[in-house]
Amino acid sequence: MDASSLNDVLDRNTILTNLNANAKDDVIDALARRLREHGYIASVDAFVDAVHEREKEGATGIGNHVAIPHGRSETVNKNGVAIAVLDHEIEWESLDDTGAKVVVLFTVGASGDGANEHLRLLSLFARKMAKQEIIDALLKAGTIDEVIGCFAD
């Protein structure tokens, strides 16, 4: 995938809204299952393990109730992103000590190309999420179209 804009990477099939989850593991598992269903990863368990390994390295909560975990793994078939807007805030280690209500989970291939593509994706999302109005809209998003609208170019 050569992502030149977020429109190229957003997949309606990997966006969940009003997700009822009580812990980080619930969210990661729900998103990984969705990624598996739509061909982004070959194994939910292997991918979830990779995400957990990355979580041990440091906080993936970037603040403002947003977390951006990722898993770099051989099980990744194609780089992509799954997004969950939760129905309530959950505990998540973050830079500003807020929990998470929006989780943007990236799949990262194990090859060098996968890592480079991940950095491009991260940059595209980071530019959008640096704007408070985008964060505010994401936190209120109740439909897939509203989530996509937050990231539209």
From TrEMBL:
Record-annotated PTS EIIA type-2 domain positions: 8-153
Entries under InterPro entries matching the protein: PTrfase/Anion_transptr, PTS_EIIA_type-2_dom, PTS_IIA_fruc, PTS_SugarTrans_NitroReg
EC number: 2.7.1.69
Protein's name according to its UniProt entry: PTS system, fructose-like IIA component
Any one annotated GO CC term: membrane
Species in which this protein is naturally found: Bifidobacterium scardovii
Pfam families: PTS_EIIA_2
Record keywords, A-Z: Phosphoprotein, Phosphotransferase system, Sugar transport, Transferase, Transport
One annotated GO molecular function: protein-N(PI)-phosphohistidine-sugar phosphotransferase activity
GO biological process: one example: phosphoenolpyruvate-dependent sugar phosphotransferase system
UniProt-listed PROSITE patterns: PTS_EIIA_TYPE_2 (PS51094), PTS_EIIA_TYPE_2_HIS (PS00372)
